[in-house]
Amino acid sequence: MEATKAAGFASIMTHFDLGPWAEARGRLAAALADEHGARFIGVAAELPITVVSDINFAVEEVADDERRRANGDIAAAKKTFDAVVGSRNDVEWRCSLSDPTRFLIQQSRAADLIVVGRRASYDQSDPSMSVWPGVVAMEAGRPLLVVPPEKDFLAGHKVVVAWKETREARRAVKDALPILKRANEVVVMTASAHYRDESAEDVCSWLSRHGVACRPSLHAGEMTSVAGEVLDLVSDIGADLIVSGAYGHSRMREWLFGGATRDLLETSGACLFMSH
């Protein structure tokens, strides 16, 4: 068991809220923890609404009923966590009356992998307890698995690596090794103006030396959307996981002008494994 943990993930942290897909996401993460012999940590937080009690001095007080409401929401999220873990022993629950995204980032020090739900503009989410995946990816210093709505299992048999010659992509591929080693097929996709990409070939060679069955896929010429090309390849081979670096450029620049990270977070129906 100790050798298995050393080769994979020893601790998987999963965010819980009152959104409609929290239990499905939790079951996916718990199954992943079982597969890797990892500790399963559930995290939830909510920041109670503050009330201005004195207009002259702008003294803010947290109303008792707000605190009780937030604690009630966290208790409800804990029930979902309890339903997911069942009789598992190596589990832990962490919660706080604080900002959900900031609390999850803080607690990430105890995790090898963080699992969160997708929060696309059209997704149904919990406004009080949900977290922003892009912010977590940027600031946690841990790999992030973003799970789309309704998905409750990650097979990981076929994986697409969205490769770009960046530090973030190199880190993502290394961080994802425990999953990639279990895959039957890994395709390292790169977009280039040329008809050969030595960096993608090097990545495949490196992965092969780690026992990963992989091949490069070069997409040359002009394209309207890199993310669209990635998702087309995912559909073509039947993959349910994309491995990608997160925000190779300034995050503000990507959100203002577009970018593969933003587009994948917004549109991917496959799970996203991201590192920054």
TrEMBL record:
Coiled-coil residue spans: none
Q: Which domain of life is it from?
A: Bacteria
Quote the SUPFAM superfamilies the UniProt record gives: Adenine nucleotide alpha hydrolases-like
| Gene3D superfamilies tied to this protein | 3.40.50.12370
Record family assignment? Belongs to the universal stress protein A family.
Q: What is this protein called?
A: Universal stress protein
